[in-house]
Design brief:
heterodimer; A: 301 residues; mainly alpha; ABC transporter involved in vitamin B12 uptake, BtuC; two-stranded antiparallel sheet; 71% helix; globular; B: 362 residues; 13 helices
Chain lengths: 301, 362
Amino acid sequence: MTDFLAAAIRIATPLLLAALGGILSERAGVFAVGLEGMMLAGAFAATAGAWLAGSQAVGVLAALLGGALIAAAVAVVAVRYRADNMVTGLAANILALGLTSYLLRIAGGGRPAAIHLNPLPAWPVPGLSQLPVLGPLLFDHPPLTYLAVLLCVVLSWFLARTQAGLTLRATGENPEAVFAAGADPLRVRMLAVVAGGAIAGLGGAVLSLQQVGTFTDGMTGGRGYLALASLIVGRWTPWGAAAACLVFGAAEALELRLQEASVPLSSYVLQMAPYVIALAVLAGMGRSARLPAAIGQALEG
Amino acid sequence: MSDGSAPLAPDATAPSMAAPAEGTRRLVLATSGLPRRILIAVLLSLLAAAGLIALSGHNPVAALAAIAAGAAGSPHQIGVALNKTTPYLLSGAGVALCFRAGIINIGAEGQIAVGGMGTAAVALAWPIADPVLAVVAALLGGALAGAAWAGVATAIHLGRRVHEVLATLLLNFVAWLLVEQALAGPLGQFGAGFLQSKLMPRPTWLPRLPGVDAHPGCLIALAAAALLSFLLWRTRFGFALRVAGSSRPAAAYAGFSLARLTWGAMLLAGALAGLAGGIEVLGVQRRLIDGFSLGFGFKAVTVALLGALEPLAVVPAALFVGFLEAGALSMQRQIGVPSALVSVIEGLTMLFVLAATVRRRP
């Protein structure tokens, strides 16, 4: 059971980071379809940075940059040039997939470079990690997992309790009011998208740097879209998204176990659940949709 | 925005009930100098690609020449490129029609997959000896399956007021898993070690066109693009679509049913995407294979944008992407520049086209 929960947490971590990045973007009023590309760029940059600099810390910083870079492209095209958010995100995903594969092959002189890094080690919390059951489950994780939880706390506080967070949320609900209050909604959205991209990039680093120790083509494998589904199911709140990510992580962990036990429940049907649940949440909202009111709307200016 | 695209009651044509102006559609394209802007966008992304080629230590001019030679150097290679073009043209033309009406349908990815499944199911379930009947029946099955999948998205969108992009996007993943489920069950070849169906019955195989090594799918796609162009510019339905695309309130005021327009455009696009999946199964793979059309639907969006949402202009756009992909594979074999460059070019072109063509003042 502890194994199962630990697996759920492991699977949920990259999703949560990407979803947190997506929340920043969507609460500011920009759809976060580009999460997949931002994660992938982060995963690649983390591997490349750690490999080139020989330091995992550099890898983590590079992941922030990689995700932010793709997000910057989205921000310029979708916010500054007011293109459709979704289609822009899609384009960014295609670009990130191509660019990371291409650079991986250039680094390897025509073939995918074989990079092997030591995955980030677990940092057991002194004392607490010795607790029975809870110790190994909650206090014996690699650093980026703690960071994900920390970011969840910080982001909740930021969105709910700070002036800047209020401005960000207002930009997603009513940009004219933000403008009238003297802030620049265009700038708020650009910053939110880029910051969200950096956080999503960290989600990619969890995959490459913390869990696998290398980068492979398209290694995010749709997790960016799954993160998008999670943040919808979590109704655009950090803790809601965290709960959704854990449930989806548990579903995936369960699926692996069911396969081993050859239980006749189809893993494909189980994998559909996150998307179907996200659709159900969206459908259930009807008129009282809690989607940020001005999401996807272009700004005048 | 979901308000603007919601189904309108019959009395919604009254001025006081017109949809709120809030539903501004952002994919309305600037009309002046559009071909020039798209051309500049393509050139810019090719320039960026040349920079990336230089980064890999190869000569950009030689690499681009290798792409051209690889795409059009022989009848066989032209055939390969035309086969690659076919699904992009079919699904891209449908996407263009939807975008034109302000319906951001990014569900072609799933509609193609389900269409391939429909074609495979019909071909395997009803063995027909006559090749013409067999192909028509199987492709019809694919088109119907694609339209049905688009219909699910439309029903969720109109019935529950879910943003159409989210409905179509999320259903793509459900569609892929549905195909995998079918391949793991009734449609699959047991013991293949890979998720794939049995070989399609021989009468359903698409023939080769004389001269080039392509199946006739490209001709079907060309006809479909011409048909959509006629529909868009010469019929009442097309006129209504164009009005709805430039102003939803105007369309509602003019008495067009936005719900009916959305159903029409979505089902048509879904049928074309399903047909694209079916043609890929019968003409190229001759099996239903897991992941056979991965990325096709997203490229359909690239192609639609590159073709300025104009069904006939989608033809050169699809040819560009199809030949680029075929040529890049050959370039990788010949001089070793990674063919992943194609995705870079596609992604950049899309971003540049989006930035350069979206109307400045919505």
